[in-house]
Amino acid sequence: MTDQAAPAEAAPVKLETGSTINPKRLQPLRKLVPFMLRYPWRLSGTLLFLLVSTIASLAIPAMLGGVIDQGFVAQNLDSITRYGWLIIGIAAIMGAASGARFYFISSLGERVLADLRQSVFAHLLRLDARFFDTHRVGELTSRLNGDVAMIRGAVGSSFSLALRSMVTIIGALTMMLLTSPVLTIAVVVAAPAILVPVVTFARRLRGMSRKTQDALADLSAMATEMLGATRTVKSFTQEKVQSELYDRHSEESYRAETRRLFARAALVAMVIFLGTAALVGLVWWGARSVFEGSVTAGQLAQFLVYALMASGALTNVSEVLGSLQSVAGATERLSEILATEPAITDPAEAKALPVPPLGTVAFENVSFSYAPGGMDPVLSELSFAVGAGETVALVGASGSGKSTILSLLQRFYDVNAGSIRVDGIDIRDVRLAELRRRFAYVEQEPTIFAGTVAENIRFGRPEATDAEVEAAARAALVHDFVADLPLGYRTVVGERGVTLSGGQKQRLAIARAILKDAPILLLDEATSALDAQSERLVQMALEHLMQGRTTLVIAHRLATIRDADAILVLDNGRIIDQGTHDQLVSKGGRYAELARLQFRLDDVAAR
Ligand SMILES: Nc1ncnc2c1ncn2[C@@H]1O[C@H](COP(=O)(O)OP(=O)(O)OP(=O)(O)O)[C@@H](O)[C@H]1O
C-alpha cells in the first residue's frame, strides 16, 4: 500500500466556542461502546426514544405553519382547533418520549459508570507490586473517582445532548430546505458573518478561563499545604507572611476572573446584537419573499423556528464536544489501566502444594533486582533453607534486602535468577492464591482498615465465627482491650474511628494472623520502641502466634534473636554469616557489632 492510499487524516473541526475539536482525540470514547453494548435494551430504548422525541419536536413548527396559513390567514377556526388537538397529541408523544429517553440514557450512564468503576478497581487489585511501585496511589484513586465520574457525565448527559443536537440539526436543516430552499441558502451563506467574530472572541475567552483556573488551583494548593502544616507555620511564626502570600495569590485570581468576566460580558453583548440583527435580516428577507409570494406567512414562521432550533442545537454540540474531549482523555486513562496486564500471574499448569502443609522454605541461588534487566541487584545468589517449624531471623543493616526476601517469598515480584521453594515446590508453579494462603504476614506497620475490630481481625478469613475471632483476639492479648471499647468488637477503628496505639495495632495484626492460621509466618518486627508493658504484650502475642509454625522474621528484638534456630546476617543482598546468636556473638565480627547497635545488647548487659 502506498502512502497515498492511507486514509487521509480528518481535519480538525473548528467550533464556535473556539475549541478545536480533533475527531482523533474523541476516539478513546469508542472504548466505552463495549460497556454500553452489554445493555442492548437500554441502548436501543435510548435510540428509539431519542428518534421519536426529536421527530415529534420537529413536527411542531410544521403544525405552527399550518395554524397560520390554514387558520389565521384563511380565518378558519375549525382548522385551528384541529391543529390545536394535533399539537397537543404530538406534545404528549414528545413529552413521554423525552422522559423515557432521559430515563434510559441516565440509567445506562449509571450502569456503565458502576461497571467501569468495578472493573477498574478489581483490575487494580490484580496488578502486581511493580505497577504500584511506579504509580502514585493518589493518582490511581483520582482516576477511579474523577475519571469515572467524568465519564458518567458523558454517557448520562453530554453523549445524549450531542446525539440529540446532531439529530436536531440534521432534522431542522432538512425541514428548512423543504420549507424554503432559497431562505436556507441565504442562512447558510450569512452564518459565517456571525460565527467568525464569535469564534475568534470565544477562543480568547477560553484561554483566559484556563488562566483563571490555574490561578485558582495555585490558590487551593497553597491553602491545602499550609492548612496541613499549621504547626510548622505557627512554630516558625509564619502566619502573617503566609496569609499575605495567600492574599496576593487570591487578588491575582480575582483580577484574572474579572478580566474574564468583562470579556464574557462583551461576548454576550456581541452575541445578542449579532443574533438579533441576523434574525431581523432573516425576517426582512423572509417578509420580502412572503410579499413576492414565494413563501407563505406560515412557512416563514415555521422556517424561523427551525432556524432557531438548528442554531440552538449547534451551540449545544459545540459545548458538548468540548467536554466530550476531556471525557475521551478520562476514558483513555482508564483504558490504559484496564489494558495493563499483571506481570505475576497463575501458572498455566499449576502444581498443588502438599496437604497437610510441611512449612518448609528454600531459597536457591536467588538473584533479584527491582530495576529492569537485573540492574543494581538487591539480592545476589542467595541460598538458605528453613525447616518445618523452625524460626529463622533475618538481620542486617537498613537496605540490606530483608523485606525484599519476604516480598519474593509471597511472589509480589519474580526472581531474576534461581528459585524459591515452599514445601519443595517452586512457587512459580503454584497458584498465587494457594501460595499466599500458606503465609501469615505481620507487617512492621500493620494496616488497620476503616471498619470494626472484628472486621479487621477477620480480614484474611471473612467466614470466621465470632467465637473464633474472640479466641484469636485472646491469643493475641487484645481481648481485654477490645472488651473495654464502647462497642466491643463492633467498635469502628482506623480512619475516622478509634485511634489505636502502636502496640494495639500490632496485636490486632497478630490476631488477624492467628485467625488466618497459616503454616508459615512472615514477621517484620516493629522498629519503633514500644513501652516495656506494650512490648511484653506484643512479645507474648507473638509467642502464641509462632507456636508450631515455621517463622521467617526480620528481627529487631533481642528476644526473637535469642530464640531463633538460625540467624542469617545480610549485607548488600548477600548472606555474610549464619548461625545461632551465641555462635555468632562468640565469633565476633559483623554480627556482634550489628547486634550491639541494633538490639541494645549493651542495655541488656547493663541490666
Ligand atoms: N519497591 C522497591 N522498588 C525499588 N527499590 C526498592 C523497593 N523496595 C526496596 N528497594 C531497594 O532495595 C534495597 C533493599 O530494600 P529492603 O527493603 O529489602 O531492605 P531492608 O533490609 O528490609 O531495609 P529496612 O530494614 O530499612 O526495611 C534497598 O536499597 C531499597 O532501596
UniProtKB/TrEMBL annotation:
<feature type="domain" description="ABC transporter">
    <location>
        <begin position="361"/>
        <end position="597"/>
    </location>
</feature>
<feature type="domain" description="ABC transmembrane type-1">
    <location>
        <begin position="47"/>
        <end position="326"/>
    </location>
</feature>
<dbReference type="InterPro" id="IPR039421">
    <property type="entry name" value="Type_1_exporter"/>
</dbReference>
<keyword id="KW-0547">Nucleotide-binding</keyword>
<dbReference type="Pfam" id="PF00664">
    <property type="entry name" value="ABC_membrane"/>
</dbReference>
<dbReference type="InterPro" id="IPR036640">
    <property type="entry name" value="ABC1_TM_sf"/>
</dbReference>
<keyword id="KW-0472">Membrane</keyword>
<dbReference type="InterPro" id="IPR011527">
    <property type="entry name" value="ABC1_TM_dom"/>
</dbReference>
<feature type="transmembrane region" description="Helical">
    <location>
        <begin position="39"/>
        <end position="63"/>
    </location>
</feature>
<keyword id="KW-0067">ATP-binding</keyword>
<dbReference type="InterPro" id="IPR027417">
    <property type="entry name" value="P-loop_NTPase"/>
</dbReference>
<comment type="similarity">
    <text>Belongs to the ABC transporter superfamily.</text>
</comment>
<feature type="transmembrane region" description="Helical">
    <location>
        <begin position="83"/>
        <end position="104"/>
    </location>
</feature>
<dbReference type="InterPro" id="IPR003439">
    <property type="entry name" value="ABC_transporter-like_ATP-bd"/>
</dbReference>
<feature type="transmembrane region" description="Helical">
    <location>
        <begin position="184"/>
        <end position="202"/>
    </location>
</feature>
<protein>
    <submittedName>
        <fullName>ABC transporter transmembrane domain-containing protein</fullName>
    </submittedName>
</protein>
<feature type="transmembrane region" description="Helical">
    <location>
        <begin position="261"/>
        <end position="285"/>
    </location>
</feature>
<dbReference type="InterPro" id="IPR003593">
    <property type="entry name" value="AAA+_ATPase"/>
</dbReference>
<keyword id="KW-0812">Transmembrane</keyword>
<keyword id="KW-1133">Transmembrane helix</keyword>
<feature type="transmembrane region" description="Helical">
    <location>
        <begin position="161"/>
        <end position="178"/>
    </location>
</feature>
<dbReference type="InterPro" id="IPR017871">
    <property type="entry name" value="ABC_transporter-like_CS"/>
</dbReference>
<dbReference type="Pfam" id="PF00005">
    <property type="entry name" value="ABC_tran"/>
</dbReference>
